[in-house]
Amino acid sequence: MKQLQVFSFTCLIFISSLSATSFKKYSGEFLSLGAGSRAMGMAGAFVSVANDVSAGYWNPAGLTETDSLEILFMHTKQFISSVQHNFMAASMRLNAQSTLAVSFMYLTVNGIKDTRDAYNFAEGKIDHSRIQTFNTGDYAFYISYARMTNQQFSYGFNIKLLERDYKIESAIGIGFDAGLKYRFTDKLVVGAMFRDITTSLMTWSTGERELISPSLRTGASYLVNISPLNLTLLPSLDLNWNFEGRQYASQFQLGALSLDALAGLEVVYHDLLAVRLGLDDLQRFNTGIGLRIPRISFDYSFTAYQSELDDIHRISFHLNFDRTLF
Q: Which residue has the higher pLDDT, 299 or 19?
């Protein structure tokens, strides 16, 4: 009954927030870039899978499945190496039921040329010595808390602080997320992630205010053990629900409601070597590999772009300190 009350209360907050006005479509799009090469190798179909320190981003309820201390760093270069996308996170178990985590994600473009003052009117030509360069960036800092009520149900919350720095103008903001995970059996898990649950407010230096629309991601995963081959298979499916009228930028739409499906698969051999693949919401092919050795994992993921923007490569380092060390 208590689990149902938590779930109902979270849904009520989420639904009531949809009545807010002045949404800016795609204003929080940088927050959907993903975190961790393991999850991205599965195309981001991770809301029910999330069970490591990256869960602070994907579904904070999953943080209850982490070990005593976990640290993650991901580095990405994309769009012909012009865009840097990085993610860092650390989590700590407070006790057997609860976990605290912090995460930091940033997206930067460096070395942009500023030619506004480069033209020399006296000489009638460009003065290259006047050309300056600047950097732009989007930043998000997460503080996450998760709690397990029993072996089946867990929930978690995020407070996220946002900053957008475009040299000429900048913005700061704050938002809240909530996540739920429910384990029907040892193999079947479902999850839900309510992003920007009360709408996230961005205030620009110009005085303009933007509201980031709430969104909902639901998912399910099922663990398959093939003991004779020392293999585990973990297929997952996520549904991403948006409520800001993305008619031409989604797979399915009905009025202001749009829906995208993501599918992923992780195959692990002997708890040592992992191979991953998936299709994301843009129907791009994603794949990745992972190597697990005691207390450290190395993960790589690849996203195919069939355009001039080139492919995306990500690499992650994940440190894991088990409970016996603390």
A: 299
pTM of the model as a whole: 0.84
Cα 311 to Cα 33, 289, 304: the distances in Å are: 14, 16, 5
Ramachandran area for residue 74 (φ above 0: left; ψ -120 to 50: alpha; else beta): beta
Quote the CA–CA distance of 46 and 57 in Å, as a whole number: 10
What is the rounded CA–CA span in Å between residue 276 and residue 269? 12
Alpha-carbon distance of 218 to 196, in angstroms, equals 15
C-beta neighbour count of 28 within 10 angstroms: 27
Phi first, then psi, for residue 55 (nearest 5°) are -60, -25
Rg (CA), the chain: 21
| CATH number for the domain harbouring residue 271 | 2.40.160.60
Q: Which residues pair with 90 in a beta bridge?
A: 71, 102
pLDDT computed for residue 242 by the predictor: 86
Q: Which pLDDT tens digit goes with each residue over 93-145?
A: 999 899 999 999 998 887 777 777 777 777 677 877 777 777 788 999 999 99
One-letter-per-residue 3-state SS of 120-153: ECCCCEECHHHCEEEEEEEEEEEEEEEEECCCCE
State the maximum Cα–Cα separation within the chain, in Å, rounded to a whole number.
81
| 107 in Cβ contact with 115 (< 8 Å) | no
The per-residue pLDDT for 193 is 96
Amino acid at residue number 311: D
Query: What are the contacts of 293-299 at 24+ separation with CB within 8 A?
Result: 295/319, 295/320, 295/321, 295/322, 296/320, 297/38, 299/36, 299/37, 299/38, 299/41, 299/274
- Structural element, H or E, at residue 298: strand 296-303
Find the domain containing 77 and state its range.
2-325
CA distance linking residue 12 with residue 33, whole number of Å? 27
> Which of 1-15, 136-150, 161-175 has the weakest average pLDDT?
1-15
What total of structural domains would you count in the chain?
1
